[in-house]
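YM 10:42: Flippase GtrA sequence, as discussed on the call
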Amino acid sequence: MADQLFNRRDLIAYFVVAATGALTNLLVATILQEWLPISYKSALFAGYWFSFIVGYFLTRLFAFNARNTTQTRRQIVKFIMVSILSCLITVYGSAILYDISRQWFGTFIFLIPFSVKEVNLNKLFSQIAAMGASFLSNYVLHKQFTFRDTGFYDRLKRLLDI
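YM 10:58: structure's back
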């Protein structure tokens, strides 16, 4: 099972897709904090859901051989469920790690050379760490749940009487 779960091709494809989503998330959250008077957590939340859209299409196209399937609706429902969990890990994990890092180590600011842009390293590393944890849970859940017929979607439809 471990060989099937962590096969090299799927892991590399998913890593590239996830890296694109992570960079999108990081970029959107950074721009929102820079341009708008919103909180760190709100910026992370907005960045996450923007990267969600990018991530769904890229994951479907390039990871887990899900491109040629007729189960798009069920995959979207499962993808959203996994993404909600991932959002909680990313947003609240980042916020908790940020608060802990500030309390334990103080605030670290890095000035980008030859510019006036300051980078809050506590926020940056907290977000990267939480996105790493989210990556691991997403990989396993998408491979074993979202893009695989588990019977869950049919049970959910019966439960909701759809």
